[in-house]
Amino acid sequence: MRAETPAIPAEIEEEGNKIATERLVFFSDAVIAIAITLLALELPIPKGDTTARAWYDFHHNFGDYLAFLISFVVIANAWFAHHWLYRYVERVHRRVAGINMVWLLTIVVTPFATRVLVGDDTAFPMAFTLYAGIQAASQLTFVAIILTIRRDHLTAAEVPPRTFNRGITRSLAMAIVFLISIPLAYRSHWAFALWALNGYFGRLIGLGLDRRKSGPKT
Amino acid sequence: MRAETPAIPAEIEEEGNKIATERLVFFSDAVIAIAITLLALELPIPKGDTTARAWYDFHHNFGDYLAFLISFVVIANAWFAHHWLYRYVERVHRRVAGINMVWLLTIVVTPFATRVLVGDDTAFPMAFTLYAGIQAASQLTFVAIILTIRRDHLTAAEVPPRTFNRGITRSLAMAIVFLISIPLAYRSHWAFALWALNGYFGRLIGLGLDRRKSGPKT
Amino acid sequence: MRAETPAIPAEIEEEGNKIATERLVFFSDAVIAIAITLLALELPIPKGDTTARAWYDFHHNFGDYLAFLISFVVIANAWFAHHWLYRYVERVHRRVAGINMVWLLTIVVTPFATRVLVGDDTAFPMAFTLYAGIQAASQLTFVAIILTIRRDHLTAAEVPPRTFNRGITRSLAMAIVFLISIPLAYRSHWAFALWALNGYFGRLIGLGLDRRKSGPKT
Amino acid sequence: MRAETPAIPAEIEEEGNKIATERLVFFSDAVIAIAITLLALELPIPKGDTTARAWYDFHHNFGDYLAFLISFVVIANAWFAHHWLYRYVERVHRRVAGINMVWLLTIVVTPFATRVLVGDDTAFPMAFTLYAGIQAASQLTFVAIILTIRRDHLTAAEVPPRTFNRGITRSLAMAIVFLISIPLAYRSHWAFALWALNGYFGRLIGLGLDRRKSGPKT
Question: Which chain A residue lies closest to B107 (C-alpha atoms)?
Answer without folding.
Answer: A37
